[in-house]
Design the sequence.
């Protein structure tokens, strides 16, 4: 059955990108067009989510060709949850862009590039073909690199250059693993690969699995591959940073979930042991890195490394509860982190010269509308995991799954790491919004970026904290489905000739 | 024999690419980037499912000739386009950096380190 809504998830933003390339002279119109494209992509994602949870896995065969010969887009429950998360945060990003005062957002290339990034991101989440995954990933990387290179921050160019090299290594690893898998299995369709890997175990597959895992870890900035992330994310324009640090890093997590549950189920246990260690190191590295940073945007970029560690820990334990924890954590963290970044963008957009350094903006938050401080407080509490916000729910699920497994040493370590989160969130609150700074060097503008987008995201956080049950139920259903790869394989309905 | 030559070529190009990428000169590093991608393209060509001597879309198969694998060629075409795009972007950024810093020595482009 061809589900046309799946096509809408990817192609509405692609069409939007091409339209905005034509209408570059009308920047305001561009922004609204982009928002419309993101909105329709979001609508399609939510509709597909409802279909997927109401019925079976949805597929779309591009051009009508039968898989494994043609490319097929597959949305199962896991992909639907991730796609709705990505589309929601990206839509908030476009709402922020409408009233953004960054100079780079008025460049003619900005809106089309942002929409191409959206296309690439959604494509990686719903494709059922490994090579198409690579292509969508490259679309996403190239557009995000260009967006950072044109950022207002003069360091953006350098950071973008650095990231392009590092991501090229990741892409090479991905390509090599694709060629190894094609050499040993003769297919690129993920369902077909999974089907073949159940029965046979060719020699090259281990190496391919390793390279695929490394590429995914590099894309999500997990500990040994994290060094590019703070620079690259900090220098990005605010709406792009909000998307990069919250959902783009989740693409790697999504691929890792696919690796351990669909493709290489046999070898998953060996990799998962490493994930637990990497997760603990990531939590500590991210938390301490954030603690010693005195720049709001950089602090939040470091914090992302720590939060990815929590997600990796859930995947590493690998029990159904652990996977539920990973999905719930990924979902909640996307909203919290993007909201916090936008709040910081609000603060620095109201100062002249624009800055996110505590040295410059200490006490500046006091002179701004109180809603900004309130939003930071709520978002910070959610990040640190204080009830009744959604961060508490996600930390609770991780801890519960750890207790369930009985792996207490990493558990204690990450709970301690979580407490550090509380420290740096409240230190930032004190520095920026509480302390009285008579020697403030900056001029505070009466206008700045719009507060609508972070308010929406924070209200989602509060809502997900109070009504956490639906999300956890969805994640449980998704994990039930991905635990058995045959669901995915059968849904694609491969053509298997004699 | 042909397998060995391809393998050696892939290995050699990969080594050259890595060596160039580790140069201090940003332009040489960008060239290394391109060479690395081409070595991987060659690798993809080498892993084709079957070795044929005729283009895939023909019915003229007299004399025991076999078709070549079309999929790897399609993959390489896409990979070339992708790597070409990245390379263009990379060179564009090198030119911007050289204009801003008046050098292409990566040891002197260190504003991020501070």
Sequence:
């Amino acid at each position: 059955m061809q589900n046309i809504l799946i096509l809408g998830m990817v192609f509405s933003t692609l069409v939007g990108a091409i339209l905005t390339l034509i209408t570059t002279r009308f920047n305001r119109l561009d922004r609204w067009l982009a928002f419309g494209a993101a909105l329709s992509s979001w609508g399609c994602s939510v509709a597909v989510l409802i279909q997927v949870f109401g019925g079976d896995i949805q597929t779309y065969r591009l051009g009508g060709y039968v898989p494994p010969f043609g490319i097929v887009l597959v949305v199962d429950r896991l992909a639907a949850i991730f796609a709705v998360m990505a589309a929601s945060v990206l839509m908030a990003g476009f709402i922020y862009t409408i009233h953004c005062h960054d100079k780079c957002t008025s460049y003619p290339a900005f809106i089309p590039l942002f929409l191409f990034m959206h296309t690439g991101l959604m494509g990686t989440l719903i494709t059922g073909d490994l090579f198409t995954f690579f292509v969508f990933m490259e679309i996403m990387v190239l557009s995000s690199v260009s967006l950072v290179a044109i950022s207002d921050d003069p360091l953006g160019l350098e950071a973008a250059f650095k990231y392009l090299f590092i991501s090229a290594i990741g892409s090479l690893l991905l390509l090599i693993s694709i060629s190894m898998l094609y050499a040993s299995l003769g297919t690129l369709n993920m369902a077909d690969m999974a089907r073949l890997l159940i029965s046979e175990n060719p020699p090259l597959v281990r190496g391919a699995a390793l390279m695929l895992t490394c590429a995914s870890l590099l894309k999500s900035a997990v500990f040994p591959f994290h060094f590019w992330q703070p620079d690259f994310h900090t220098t990005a324009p605010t709406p792009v940073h909000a998307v990069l640090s919250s959902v783009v890093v989740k693409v790697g997590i999504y691929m890792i979930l696919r690796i351990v549950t669909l493709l290489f189920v046999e070898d998953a246990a060996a990799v998962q042991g490493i994930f637990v260690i990497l997760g603990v190191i990531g939590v500590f590295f991210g938390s301490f890195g954030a603690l010693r940073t005195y720049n709001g945007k950089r602090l939040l970029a470091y914090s992302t490394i720590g939060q990815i560690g929590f997600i990796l820990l859930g995947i590493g334990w690998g029990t159904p509860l652990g996977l539920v924890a990973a999905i719930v954590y990924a979902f909640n963290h996307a909203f919290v982190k993007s909201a916090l970044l936008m709040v910081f963008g609000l603060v620095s957009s109201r100062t002249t010269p624009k800055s996110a350094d505590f040295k410059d903006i200490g006490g500046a938050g006091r002179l701004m509308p109180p809603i900004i401080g309130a939003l930071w407080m709520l978002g910070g509490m959610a990040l640190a995991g204080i009830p009744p916000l959604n961060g508490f729910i996600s930390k609770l699920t991780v801890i519960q799954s750890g207790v369930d497994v009985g792996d207490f040493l990493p558990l204690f370590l990450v709970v301690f790491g979580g407490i550090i989160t509380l420290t740096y969130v409240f230190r930032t609150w004190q520095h920026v919004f509480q302390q009285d700074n008579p020697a403030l060097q900056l001029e505070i503008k009466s206008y700045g970026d719009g507060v609508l987008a972070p308010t929406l995201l924070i209200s989602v956080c509060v809502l997900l904290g109070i009504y956490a049950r639906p999300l956890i139920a969805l994640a449980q259903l998704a994990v039930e489905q991905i635990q058995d790869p045959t669901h995915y394989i059968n849904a694609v309905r491969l053509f298997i000739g004699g | 024999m042909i397998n060995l030559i391809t393998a050696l070529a892939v290995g050699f190009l990969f080594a050259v690419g890595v060596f160039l990428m580790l140069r201090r000169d940003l332009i040489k590093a960008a060239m290394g980037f391109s060479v690395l991608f081409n070595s991987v393209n060659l690798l993809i060509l080498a892993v084709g499912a079957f070795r044929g001597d005729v283009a895939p879309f023909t019915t003229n198969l007299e004399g025991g000739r076999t078709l070549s694998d079309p999929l790897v060629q399609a993959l390489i075409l896409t990979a070339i386009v992708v790597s070409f795009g990245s390379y263009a972007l990379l060179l564009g950024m090198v030119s911007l950096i050289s204009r801003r810093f008046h050098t292409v020595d990566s040891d002197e482009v260190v504003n991020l380190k501070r």
In short: The mean pLDDT of chain A is 87. The longest strand of chain A covers residues 58-61. The radius of gyration of chain A is 22 Å.
